[in-house]
Amino acid sequence: MHTKQVIKAGTQTGEATKALVMLHGRGGSAEDILGLAQYLPVNDFALFAPQATNNTWYPYSFMAAPEENEPWLSGALKVVGEVVTDIQASGIKTENIYFLGFSQGACLTLEYVARNANKYGGVVAFTGGLIGDQLYLKNYTGDFAGTPVFIGTSDPDPHVPVHRVMASTAILKDMHAQVTQKIYKNMGHTISQDEINQVSELIFKES
Q: DSSP string covering 33-85, please?
């Protein structure tokens, strides 16, 4: 199971008024995803990057039935929730908590926020969608109250079908998120400069 191992960077809690939770992809690391921060306007943020056990949040595809990815999936969601609780305990308001993930980390990001919808600062999913062999609407509760969300992906992507991205976008919009969805032809499984530009303007522009 996952244990809460978090690398912190950026402005220290106690001084920061905003926090960004950064979730790495399969085979990646907390250090890897923290490296993205240098390309984003988040200098005044407290950065939190949890580390998955064995560098993987859950063993199988995010399109597998959820029970196949247990207990790892529930453990991963629990870790994210504990990080959020720690951030709130430091005095940072929920509306000033941001989330960002890539690939498996993007899927985990979207799954966490959809299960715990609230007015957040913003959500960034670089190539990801909601988790499961189908979308389990009963799991998704709360109201995003206009939270800005960016979801970018390649068409095609070897791991994330475009139809799941589009279905995820629709659900988040129904929960009152302001979603910007960008589908890039033949981008590959990566993060593009245009995506960086988009989130810098759409998600972090008020920072």
A: HHGGGGGSS-TTEEEEEE--GGG-SSSS-TTS-GGGGTTHHHHHHHHHHHHHH
Q: 């033949």: which residue's tokens?
A: 186
Say if residues 133 and 65 touch (Cβ distance below 8 Å).
yes
- Share of residues in the chain with pLDDT > 90 (%): 97
Residue in 72, 71, 92 with CA at minimum distance from that of residue 8: 92
Q: What is the pLDDT of residues 92-109, one digit of tens each?
A: 999 999 999 999 999 999
Q: How far apart are CA 156 and CA 161, in angstroms?
A: 7
For the CA atoms of the chain, what is the radius of gyration?
15
Question: How confident is the model at residue 207, as a pLDDT?
Answer: 46
Instruction: Measure Cα distances from 21 to 42, 65, 136, 138 in Å.
Output: 12, 26, 24, 25
pLDDT given at position 206 = 60
User: pTM, whole model, 2 decimals?
Assistant: 0.97
Three-state DSSP class for residue 118? coil
